[in-house]
Design a protein that fits this description.
five-stranded antiparallel sheet, mainly beta, 19 strands, 332 residues, ten-stranded antiparallel beta barrel, 2 domains, Lipocalin
């Protein structure tokens, strides 16, 4: 059994309203290893979906620990208990078999140790998990070089903010949107201050199976980007068009995910020469997601490089950027 993404143990008062007969069909103590002071009261198994091509399973378990002043641990993590001994465990896994396992350890005040292995039946095909929204906020440093032929050569280092939202449909389709803006200039080589801002919309569906550790997802969508420059001394505005890009993700152990992407977007502008393979933006990205501490949300550290090129009747505009950022999910 491979276990990914989250093990979270906390006190809860919500009842899961399972009958004893339902519980007996879903869990069992392997080889009669049940701990006498642990009584499982409620259990719920919820399929959920992720953006890495998997279907996760969330196991919610509630019970009572009867040993007064004892210590209870599950998978080497201490369980928080209410005054009456009630505990609630939440665990998210990506199953590669039909069973999930929880290792219980009970330590009495006198040092007596009891161990038990609890098996939980998991759905054979958790592909009907609920759809839903995901959100993230990020910040980073961008290095920018912008030229307009021989007339303008502008370089800067800026702080960039980015926000993303995504929606997962039940049939596997993914809808996403991202907005970004350069918000503060750290250094520049000209008196003028130039900043980029924009947004993009995209839709795609993974090509790989739901339980593969690899996810290959092609996306198509639209983008818009513009510049804000002091006194409009130079720059471009209102660039827009379609975009296509490919994202590959690989789920590793312990909630670590490696991703890479490549994007091509033909650029259009009112004064541009229509040459879609010359007027374009090319972008490459690498990211690595990992929890910064145990039981925390996964932070994503990224490196992105992009080149924007636009052939005008009066010359060539080119922008090159290299960005280093970090983002964190929030919400559900």
């Amino acid at each position: 059994m491979q276990v990914f993404l989250l093990l979270c143990i906390f006190i809860g008062s919500e009842s899961l309203a399972e009958s004893e007969s339902e519980l007996s069909e879903k869990i069992n103590w392997i080889e009669n290893s049940q701990i006498k002071d642990v009584e499982i009261k409620n259990l719920k198994v919820l399929p959920i979906r992720t953006f890495i091509g998997h279907q996760k399973v969330r196991v919610l378990l509630q019970g009572i620990y009867k040993a007064q002043d004892g210590t209870l641990m599950v998978n080497d993590i201490p369980v928080k208990l209410s005054k009456s001994g009630v505990f609630r465990i939440q665990r998210e896994i990506i199953p590669d078999s039909e069973k999930g396992e929880l290792t219980f350890v009970s330590i009495s005040p006198y040092g007596k140790v009891e161990r038990g292995l609890l098996s939980v039946d998991l759905p054979k095909d958790p592909t009907t998990g609920p759809s839903g929204w995901t959100f993230s906020l990020g910040a980073g440093i961008s290095l920018m070089d912008y030229t307009e032929g021989s007339a303008v050569s502008y370089s800067s280092k800026v702080i960039t903010l980015k926000g993303s939202a995504g929606y997962l449909f039940l049939n596997g389709w993914q809808l996403g949107a991202t907005v970004f803006s350069n918000v503060f200039t750290l250094s520049k080589n000209l008196a003028e201050d130039a900043k980029f801002m924009g947004y993009n919309l995209r839709v795609g569906k993974p090509l790989t199976g739901p339980n593969s550790s690899w996810s290959i997802t092609p996306y198509v969508g639209l983008y818009y980007v513009t510049m804000s420059v002091t006194n409009d001394q130079f720059g471009v505005s209102g660039l827009s068009g379609p975009q296509v890009f490919l994202v590959a993700r690989h789920a590793l152990k312990n909630n670590h995910v490696f991703s890479s992407s490549i994007k091509f977007a033909p650029v259009s502008a009112s004064l541009a020469v229509y040459q879609p393979f010359d007027n374009r933006e090319l972008a490459l990205g690498l990211s690595y997601s990992l929890p910064v501490r145990k039981n925390a949300r996964a932070w994503t550290f990224s490196v992105d490089a992009a080149q924007l090129k636009l052939l005008l009747f009066g010359g060539t505009i080119e922008s090159k950027t290299m960005s280093f950022g970090v983002s964190i999910p929030f919400g559900n």
